[in-house]
């Protein structure tokens, strides 16, 4: 009478819905994820002015005065110009005297941030273009050699050749709007 | 007339069901990818702003050492999660710096997300406060104009 009992089969786990569950999670993360990366213009501010610090003397011919007035009018050394013209002028000016030049920026307290941003952007564009050309013009033979060897990224060599020399003045007290 | 049974051709044309067993694995892979790349925004922004656009913008690296500074349309200032004003700005920045570990504090970067129409007077005052607290690396946040065309 010891009949072998029929072995009970364990039913397999039904995993059909795993796909649905993970799909739901996937869609949740797709929706909430923000791939946006923070982008912008990088700047180094000067340290706070010291008490006994004296303004350094810079030869006037090495200074380019870029101004923005209260009505967001852009001017360079007293003449009005557009952003593209500013880029070209800065390029010419910096290429002329890469180590000594100073770009002096003077804004008004009423100038809008957007106008200021576009001006900064135009100046950075000038430097970037010069740096891209940098080695080709033989500005720095060392960096050009490095580029030929493929050792150094173009920006590195160019950054040494054309240091960014920008000086920002105290904004002027509210002009006419 | 009935066709003769071929020796090679199988007469039954039933398609086997597609094996779906690997589907969850596949989806889990994609899921993990998104879980890793996603980062939840932790400070809720209390000011309204619209950053200007530029062509020369660069990606901001080292997220851990970035302090977000928002300047809204109504000229209110917010640092990371909290609203503040000009007079307290440098102490708030100092507090943020103390929260970071030494290496990040050294590379402290201010990501300035200011509204397009903010007057430069306010921006300049903010910059002066930043100088005071020696937060000298500033990133003027902006949209990438090249991408939008």
The portion of residues forming beta strands of chain A comes to 5-15%
Straight-line distance between termini of chain A: 109 Å
For the report, how would you describe the main beta sheet of chain B?
Answer: 5 strands, mixed
Percentage of residues in strands of chain B: 15-25%
Enumerate how many helices of chain A there are, as a single number: 5
- Rg of chain A, Å, rounded: 30 Å
What is the fold named in CATH at topology level of the domain at 60-168 in chain A?
Nucleotidyltransferase, domain 5
Helical element count of chain B?
5
Give the CA-CA distance, first to last residue of chain B.
Answer: 69 Å
Backbone structural class of chain A:
alpha/beta
Mean pLDDT of chain B: 81
Strand line-up in the sheet with most strands of chain B: 5-4-3-6-7
Level-1 CATH class name of the domain at 60-168 in chain A: Alpha Beta
The quaternary structure here is heterodimer
Anisotropy-based shape of chain B: elongated
Q: Write the CATH fold name of the domain at 53-148 in chain B.
A: Nucleotidyltransferase, domain 5
Shape label of chain A = elongated
